[in-house]
Amino acid sequence: MADKLQQNAIVSNQKRSASDEHDHPDDFTLAKKPTKHHLIWEDPAAALANVRHEFGEHGGVNMSIEASAAFTVMEPEILSRMFAGELGPDRDFFIYSRHFNPTVLNLGRLMAALEGTEAAYCTSSGMSAIASVMLQLCSSGDHVVASRSLYGGTHALLTHFLPRTSNITTSFVDIRDFDMVNEAIVEGKTKVLYFESISNPTLTVSNIPELCRIAHDKGVTVVVDNTFAPMVLSPARLGADVVVHSISKYISGGADVIAGAVCGPASLVNSMMDLRQGALMLLGPTMNAKVAFELSERLPHLGLRMKEHCNRALIFATRMTNLGLKVIYPGLENHPDNAILKSMANKDYGYGGILCLDMGTEERANSLMNVLQNCTQFGFMAVSLGYYETLMSCSGSSTSSEMNNQEKELAGISPGLIRMSVGYNGTLEQKWSQLEKALSEMH
Q: For the region Disordered, what residue ranges are annotated (predicted)?
């Protein structure tokens, strides 16, 4: 039994010798090369279950946490070979945890499986993942085409920070207008088409296959933020080159850690960890191994959580619509992107756990949220999403506050728009009763 666990444990008790040329393809590979099952649709939960389980150093059912910042070598000449790039984590050689860490690397394998990509690497935040990808793919003078409807922090990065610091400019487009997207791409100059699978906060659903076709016809790399739709959508299987996440949201589920991920080709992830030119390596948005361990323990039940988030969001959106409220939810038949979402969505996971309720004015939105939190205990006024409690915020004055009024108007963000991340705490009817009571007090 101990021998079997030793064979299956990713964290070996013994450092390998540089002279050991025996190939262990499953040990510390950044990601497995695509096999047949990567080329066809695979349920994300099944993909996660197919990743080799990492046992602990002493046979524990959970993997060990490699909390070391630095790693020893058995022979002095190994260190120089590691820095020269001859020996690396694919053969169980580690230098320093800002570069590669076994526990963080394992979480990366799980993220790659979840998104159906060759590789993935996890970072200290979602914004660090986004910023690092953009800086790796673009050089000074390059151009980006991006959706008008983006998370405020991403919009600020593309609008203000990258032009000032790196001479990287962005043209913002209506992501539903394919002619506009096509015309905005400047062949030879545009390097990235960037959009969110389901946009924050307006819940615009991107037609990922068509947008990828347009971009790839002109040699442009497609980067998709899938934070709002893990399990629900698989952008890489729909044609996207790179998928980024704020793991702080649904994947964590606990509203207690900040983390991000870059999922994509092994060549990109390896280039981002290059000692001389890698954006992740040199900017240093390192994930703590203890955080990586915690997150790896939460991924197995992500599918169950997403199904309940999405189930409740659809029921609440349907019932609120029937009450005559202005609801935005892509799972509703009246949503303009309902058909395209259904054509792309992974079966049985629903259509997202976020809904928007437009109260017309910020004053009415704030009044409703006040009653929902402080009178009926329906949820909390807080940013972020994916928590087991319902979280509510008025997007225009919070998570999209980096945008000016004209940018908000172009993105479709009205002053009274409440973004609601529907939780699963309590019974469904209990929470609906609290919501209905609050709505009745608004009249």
A: 1-29
> 258-285 pLDDT, tens per residue?
999 999 999 999 999 998 999 999 999 9
The Cα–Cα gap between 85 and 279 comes to 17
C-alpha 122/C-alpha 203 separation (Å) is 25
Domains of the chain in start order, with CATH, are: 44-66+101-299 (3.40.640.10), 302-442 (3.90.1150.10)
CA 408: distance to chain centroid?
A: 23
Residue 110's alpha-carbon distances to 49, 113, 126, 424, in angstroms, are 9, 5, 17, 24
Q: What angle do CA 132, 83, 166 make, to 5 degrees?
A: 25
Structure tokens of 146? 């991006």
Identify any residues that bridge with 173 across adjacent strands, giving them in sequence order.
147
Instruction: Determine the Cα–Cα distance for residues 321 and 323; give it in Å rounded to an integer.
Output: 5
Q: Which residue blocks in 16-63 are alpha helix, DSSP H?
A: 36-39, 44-49
> How many whole angstroms from its chain centre is CA 281?
20
Using pLDDT thresholds of 50, 70 and 90, give the confidence band for residue 40. low
Asked if residue 292 lies in contact with residue 103, where contact means CB atoms within 8 angstroms, the answer is: yes
3-state SS assignment for residue 121: strand
The helix/strand/coil state of 236 is: helix
Q: What is the pTM of this model?
A: 0.89
The DSSP call for residue 235 is G
Number of other residues whose CB lies within 10 A of the CB of residue 72: 9
Q: What's at 49, amino acid-wise?
A: A
Residue found by looking up tokens 């999209």 in the block:
400
What is the per-residue pLDDT across 347-376, written as a single tens digit (0 to 9) for each? 999 999 999 999 989 899 999 999 999 999
